[in-house]
TrEMBL record:
Its main location: Golgi. It is a single-pass type II membrane protein. It is found in: Golgi apparatus membrane. Keywords: Glycoprotein, Glycosyltransferase, Transferase. Coiled coil: none annotated. This is Glycosyltransferase. GO terms for molecular function: pentosyltransferase activity. InterPro entries: Glyco_transf_61_cat, Glycosyltransferase_61. One of its GO terms (cellular component) is Golgi membrane. It comes from the Eukaryota. Pfam families: Glyco_transf_61. Residues 11-85 form the Glycosyltransferase 61 catalytic domain.
Length: 187
């Protein structure tokens, strides 16, 4: 029930279909995850899944991967020892840590974080790499909600696959440890 017939860890990718924080190279990330050794499934909330369907999908996963956003609240359905991989968009370091990074420890989850660099953010392409918004997000936000909303509502990411491979390898190693420590097998 919790692994495929080849003993690969199951990675569920939360796909964002809204206007912001989309993973622009999602198909390439899926291919990379498969190359690393994962069996990959995609959670697309726009498909009208029921809560029990989402629960079953997440609970059977060894790794939950997604860009910071509401879809990562599904971490509540992960089993202790599972891995959360959060892609942290530019300017959302503190926000991401508080929302999803810190809660993983008391839930008994492993946590892997991938911080987006400026050249991976659509904001840099739109506003220029030399703008304060890109060079120093903390100074740009300066406690102003309207400035933070730009990072939350107007940013998409295109992950650097070379850098991200390291993140996926770390998640894979943690997932394999989790698999070896659990007694669940394929039905």
């Amino acid at each position: 029930m919790y692994r495929d017939d080849k003993g690969k860890p199951l990675l569920t990718l939360v796909s964002r279909k809204g206007k912001s924080r989309k993973l622009l190279n999602e198909e390439e990330v899926i291919k990379l995850a498969k190359d690393v050794g994962f069996n990959v499934r995609v959670l697309d909330h726009s498909k009208g899944l029921t809560v029990p369907d989402v629960y079953q999908l997440i609970h059977s996963s060894h790794v939950l991967l997604g860009v910071h956003g509401a879809g990562l609240t599904n971490l509540m359905f992960l089993r202790q020892g599972s891995v959360l991989v959060q892609v942290v968009p530019l300017g959302l370091d503190s926000f991401s840590s508080v929302c999803y990074g810190k809660p993983t420890k008391p839930l008994g989850l492993e946590y892997v974080e991938y911080k987006v660099e400026a050249n991976e953010s659509s904001l840099a392409w739109e506003h220029g790499a030399d703008s304060l918004m890109i060079k120093d997000p903390e100074a740009y936000i300066d406690g102003k909600w309207n400035n933070l909303k730009i990072y939350l509502g107007e940013q998409n990411v295109k992950i650097n696959l070379i850098r991200f491979r390291k993140c996926l390898m770390e998640a894979y190693e943690k997932a394999k440890i989790f698999m070896n420590n659990t007694s669940y097998v394929t039905d």
